[in-house]
Amino acid sequence: AVGAPVMSASMLTMALLGFASHGSKPVVDGTFGANCPPCKEFGSTVLKQLYAADGIKDTVTFDMHSAIRSAGSPATDHSWDCPDEEPGCPMTKWFLCAVDGWNTTTRTQDQRVGFLTCWDDATGTSESKTRECAKSVSLDMDEITACHSGIKAESLQLAAAKYFEQRFPSHAHSGIFDVPHVFVDGKDLGYQADYQTILKTLCATGIEAAACK
């Protein structure tokens, strides 16, 4: 129409970005150890309850990571160290293969979170726990075993260690691991975040979840 305002390409881009940002889900970003007692307690109670809370899993993105590091740069030092594990991180190796390095393309959110909460409840050897929990979330144990016995496992450990080094520079190579450690939309809730604190923080973002009512 004559006299109608014209939106420039830059204005349109900004409008679309603003819409995308407004419509994005809040993120629960957590880093956990495969065998540390506080991590297992968190996964089997707080995380399990949170993920099952009405409407949460559909309105929140869960972004998980494994606690693994080396004394030197992970690019060159592959003597992996994980909380409450033997040198080399044998438990985390199985875990990372199961969740495919927390891959969001090859593993659904239900599979990633479900495997973690199952693992933290399970008993037995790392392999038996992997088998049990893989079955519970419909993961292929043959694929996981091939990863564990092949070169892929090392690449997954390396990627996880690089992330840990970048995310937690103050204890990237020594000292306490400071896990479980949770962020909600970038807000650091530390490693003592309880169910109510995380839920309240998520609800404050404006999500439409029945658990927030």
Counting helices, strands and paired strands, the structural category is alpha+beta
Number of distinct helices:
9
β-strand amount: 5-15%
Query: Radius of gyration, Cα only, in angstroms?
Result: 20 Å
Name of the CATH homologous superfamily = Glutaredoxin
Question: What is the name of the CATH architecture?
Answer: 3-Layer(aba) Sandwich
CATH class descriptor: Alpha Beta
Query: What is the number of E strands?
Result: 4
Q: In the CATH scheme, what's the topology name?
A: Glutaredoxin
Mean pLDDT metric: 90
* Fraction of helical residues: 40-55%
Q: Name the strands of the widest sheet in spatial order.
A: 2-1-3-4
Topology as a string of helices (H) and strands (E): HEHHEHHHHHEEH
Which segments are poorly predicted (pLDDT under 50) over 5 or more consecutive residues? 1-23
Q: Which overall shape is indicated by the principal axes computed on the Cα atoms?
A: globular
Whole-number tally of structural domains: 1
- Main beta sheet: 4 strands, mixed
The span between the termini is: 45 Å
Topology:
Layout: H1 9-23, E1 27-32, H2 37-52, H3 56-59, E2 61-66, H4 90-98, H5 109-121, H6 126-136, H7 141-149, H8 152-167, E3 181-184, E4 187-190, H9 195-203
Parallel strand pairs: 1-2
Antiparallel strand pairs: 1-3, 3-4
Helix pairs in contact: 2-5, 4-6, 4-7, 4-8, 5-6
Would you give an account of this structure?
- With 213 residues, the chain is of the alpha+beta class.
- The protein has one domain (27-212): Glutaredoxin, CATH 3.40.30.10.
- Helix content is 48%, strand content 9%.
- It has helices spanning 9-23, 37-52, 56-59, 90-98, 109-121, 126-136, 141-149, 152-167, 195-203; strands at 27-32, 61-66, 181-184, 187-190.
- It has a 4-stranded mixed sheet with strand order 2-1-3-4, sandwiched between helices.
- The radius of gyration is 20 Å and the shape is globular.
- The model is unreliable at 1-23 (pLDDT under 50).
